[in-house]
Sporulation integral membrane protein YlbJ (Thalassobacillus hwangdonensis), 400 residues
Amino acid sequence: MKSQLKSFFLASFAILFAAGLIRFPDQALSASIRGLNMWWEIVFPSLLPFFIISEMMIGFGVVTFIGVLFEPVMRPLFNVPGSGSFVWAMGMASGYPAGAKITARLREEGELTKLEAERLVSFTNASNPLFIFAAIAVGFFQDIALGMLLAASHYIGNTLVGLVMRFHGLREERLFRNERRPSFSLTRAFKELHQTRIKDNRPFGKLFGDAVLSSIQTLLMIGGFIIIFSVLNKLLFVSNLTGYVAGVFRLVLEAIQLPAVLSIPIFSGLMEITMGSQMISQTGVSILFAAMAVSFILGFNGLSVQAQVASILSETDVRFFPYFVGRLLHGLFASILCVVLYKPLYLSQSAKSLDAIPVTSSPNMDMMTTIFHWMQQWGPPLTIVTLMVGIMILSARIQK
């Protein structure tokens, strides 16, 4: 019966989605182009280098080396192997869904148990600093000081999620394993690196080609999700369904003394982060309320990112539900941290900016903004060239 209901629901959703495309073709086309632009301007060029280098570092044994060194830190704090430090760092630097991609890869290599992978994926999918500072703070709010508040709330909240999720699955897990030796040993780390490299006997050219093809395949999947959810979000809005669903959010916001005008932007942000953040910036509410709303949807990741993670995890035995719980916790923690950090990280910085004549931004902010605009300009050509290289590699292998 449950399976039949699922089939009915999925079929009904597909029919309604198709009907929406037929009813609102212009809006669907514009939303599709918007999603495509976001993918090939920002997502593809920003994630591709991290995906390729992570695949190569796994193959060369570097991740194993890092895992041995950071085992004494990651095991007590987050109850995951030391290799989780690599996933955590790459996830924050490159943005979602890099953490899920690398976690799934380590699970396939046997570096993580099922429960360890579920703990790790719950707190290693974060927004990258470029998106927070350049796109949201500067691009949407034109407020440089807001970037520090959002980033601190986001990354500290993510760490708190990891500390909470360390208790996930303790009853299912074995109490102790002798092969786990949480002690720092540079010699043992080098030995593990060498053994991993010998075990993966692919030559450099083969390893690099595999990394490129695997990264492109994942990024194409991500692009599809971005476009589909951009269209879905637009169809819900133009068909007035967003307003009906947002009514529930309006009641919740009124109950916790937040502006009801944030209901529709928050709902849109739960579907797709970029559109929701932009809508929040246009509501005119106080900056604290806006920061809380943006922090929540950044922590929640949006259903678009969650669908990407679910697709990546579906190729392994790692369950999606712990990740979803982590997203709810992250959104809650980040929103609370916005209130706590609002005065020291935002008001103080804003006061300094007002005192400065002329008002200038820091070099780091200027650099991030420059990189963001550079990617918007050169991202599409880079995406096309990379896809052509991937086709050439794949064609050469087929001919062999």
